[in-house]
Write a structure and sequence with these properties.
Blueprint: E1 7-11, H1 16-26, E2 34-36, E3 39-44, E4 47-56, E5 59-64, H2 74-85, E6 89-91, H3 102-105, E7 107-112, E8 115-120
Antiparallel strand pairs: 1-5, 1-6, 2-3, 3-4, 4-5, 6-7, 7-8
Length: 123
């Protein structure tokens, strides 16, 4: 169960079908993607997963709109996604709220073949 109200990661070099295959490995039941406009949604064990292609430049967003995910936080989800997909994943280092200001909004983690590193991502 997540310690955050939702879990979100950013994926560059994977498509929705590759991500859906990973989701099917993470959850007991995962419905097919339902596309509405540019956005695709599916239900994984009752948790809504939302795929936003090219949400930030060429980076796709995968959002789980629930605190009841298999991952404790964004970073745990990002590590699992990297292990399965083998592509760079980015996520916030922890929950972020607008009250924290813009400087913290630019703090991100990137997970890739070099490990997990904090960096500044000016989206």
């Amino acid at each position: 169960m997540s310690t955050q109200p939702d879990v979100e990661i950013y994926i560059k070099d994977a498509d929705a079908q590759q991500v859906h295959t990973w989701l099917q490995q993470q959850f007991d039941q995962c419905s097919p993607w339902q596309q509405r406009g540019n956005i695709s949604r599916c239900s994984c064990d009752g948790i809504e997963a939302i795929w936003y292609p090219k949400a930030v430049g060429s980076w796709h967003s995968l959002l789980f709109d629930s605190p009841n995910t298999p991952w404790a936080n964004d970073q745990a989800c990002a590590l699992a996604a990297f292990d399965a997909l083998g592509v760079e994943i980015r996520c916030a280092p922890g929950g972020w709220h607008e009250q924290q200001g813009e400087a913290d909004a630019e703090r991100w983690l990137k997970i890739n073949a070099h490990g997990c590193q904090e960096f500044t991502w000016r989206t």
